[in-house]
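__Record contents__

***
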Amino acid sequence: MSSLSLFDDPPSEAHRAAFERWLEDQRASGSLRQAASAEVYRDMWGAFTTWCLGQSPAVTLASLDLRDLQAFQAARFGRKSSDLSLSPRHALRLVRLIDRVLRHHAASNDLPANAAASDWLASHPEVRYAEAANADPLPEFLSAAEAKHLITFLSQARPRPGLSPARRDAHAAFTWQELRNRTAVALQLGGGLTPGDVRALTLASPVSRGGRVRDRPWKVAVPGDGTSSARETPIAPWAGELLQHWLQVRKEARIQGDFLFPSTRAGKPWGKESQYKCARQVLEDAGLDSSGEGGSFRLRHTFALRQLRRGFDREEVARWLGVEPDVMSKYQRVLVAPIDVI
């Protein structure tokens, strides 16, 4: 098959077509089933394409080389964009995507494969082995694009005035269990809570008194568990809105017991395995990778990094997380280079 017509197309069309054909085949094979996952990949590829087209001359799929990839990766540092912040794991995901699209493009057009992406990984072991089980991993966290996407996904479970009637009332279709699951995940991302913290919360935990918006919780009181002391931690406004809605639905559904997030209407405690599976399902439904050791703890790490990036003192953030200040050193390793954390 001749590739002349493809390479005569504008570079923007060539980039777009290569990605869409790869995506179509991924869907057809069943390798990519979640629509949200496709959007995350599209954002990643879009950022790469934008950079390529901004170079002079524009970087094409055929001309991409190691120097281009190095320059692209360097350009990500300190830039607030909709793609990924450059932790080694995120860089690995991005370069893997580039490699897969390039190889699919080559196979589809009977061309030699451009191995620039795989060669770049081979020359950067700190990225290549970012997911190795025996590595000393940095805290896993969500990129800005992933966090924003997850917040939007979670917020679909609450009333949203100002939107079209269909979107505004979409929350009415959620069961109380689905709302519970999304609210619990929201407190992990918006308040830095651990799964154990979430299960231990009681109806007395949400604090709305003294907040900026009447009746909207702005922090939660986390009970002590014998190994850590009781503490209070602030929660993001969007998480407070979701928690406020959950409290209303919980009351209207006449759910019993004192646990904020019970397992049953009778108030049975939420089991560790059940809560883990529910959180994992929320992440998968949002199109985010739920595998690996990071799990939902990535949400807690994202919260911690955001607070440090915003300038809060490490001792104060440690107090919110319920850990000793020296634990915060692992986050400092991530913050050595500027990152984009929502």
Summary: The chain has two domains: 4-128, 144-335. Residues 88-108 form the longest helix (21 residues).
